[in-house]
Amino acid sequence: MGRMYNIGLALFCSIGSFLFGYDSGIISSVITFPFFKSFVGHESNYESLSGAVVSTFTGGCFFGAMGAGWTNDRFGRRRTIQLGAIFALWGCAMQSGANNFACMLIGRIVAGFAIGILSMTVPLYNTEIAPPKHRGFMVGLAQQMIGIGFIVANWVGYGCQFLDGDQQWRLPLGLQLVPATLLLVGSVFMPRSPRWLLEHGHDDEALAVVRTLHSASSLGEEEAVAEFAQMRETIKAEAVVRSRSLSDLWATRGMLRRTLVAVGVQVFGQFSGINVINYFGPSMYKALGLSDSQSLLVQGIYGAVGPITNFFFITLILDTVGRKKPLMFGAGSFIVTYSVLTAIVASFPPDESTNLAAQRAGIAMIFLTSIFFSVSFGPVSWVLASEVFPTRTRSIGTSVATCANWAFNVLFSQVSNIAIVNISWKYYIIFICLNAIDFVIIAFFFPETKGKTLEEMAEIFGDEIDAHDVLSSTAAHEKLEHHFEKA
Description:
Number of helices: 24
Oligomer: single chain
Mean pLDDT: 83
CATH superfamily: MFS general substrate transporter like domains
Structural class: mainly alpha
CATH topology: Growth Hormone, Chain: A
Order of helices and strands: HHHHHHHHHHHHHHHHHHHHHHHH
Shape: globular
Helix content: over 70%
């Protein structure tokens, strides 16, 4: 039962990530719909307004991720996920029922706030319920569900282009209410994080959750005892020095390194340019010479490539090869794909050339970027950012890292459509340079964390405080054994 229960729990929790993927994917189709353009008006500056539709959402995500650090510590992971689902219902309803552009923008901000909450809490929750040897897979399910959200969104968008009237854009935006409702109702049955329960003195409930998570085999009870002992000892030790201050993230050399790694991997994921393609893919395909309908069709096919690749990667490779090598591979691959894409668009300008071979090669580079992202930054950024922090700073640390992700997401979503239209191929040179810098930083400064329990990260980052110096290991184990005898 244990492993399937763990995976099922992580998969259900990742409905929040599905919402992220669906919204990010559907808006790339919606902003190309003629009836949405009529709804927005202002044809002369539509490019800027469509960028605002995207960037207000990502701006809301930034503030949602920021606030979720506090709510995760105060109310727990489950309650925070429920809060995110409520905001998602509110924001999605405002978007689909908007009667003017201002209402649409407010709905985008509220929905973004919800996705910001969920984008940091889902990986955090999955990290804390996952066994070390399967943590990459279970946290990687968040990226998998983002990808599935994109697939659904791209094909819903492709189908809705044939509708007449405002339902062309209201229907695809309104469909977000379904997964948001499912997440809100189903989250009632999710167990609370055992590490959060230990932090707040609910030891008995934490023990019950750990036992459930380890009930896969006859060794389940023994594994539960060992993990709970280590978990309880470390968390109780951390509680002695806990201050809940943002400055904790750089208070020691070890914590500063953790923070820089977590923030770095999230920001470098944005430097891959993947969200530029996700948000403005149809615009990029038009820049390569495709029609509106062809662009939406190609975007629909593109959306399926990443999730398929991601599934095989998190299932078969991630927990074996680790975190660092895939990140280096991804950064190096993006240098190549963007170099080729830049050369193609520069040599065969879409408004001057009808070279079909060049068009196909450009589309191939975009598809390869998605594939390489799915075996590198896609799943690894969520895993690494949430697993490197100790329990006492995991919520706030993951929040800061996710905020950094969304801050750069806002930047790229606001400028990319304008840049693609105005400077064309020169815009892609930025991503070549950024990924070259990423490669060097990852190679020299990022650690390998695969196979380690969350409590063993202290060894990797050289923390100054050792749980064994604060709590006696013998006393902790004796108390634990007494706890089991009573249970």
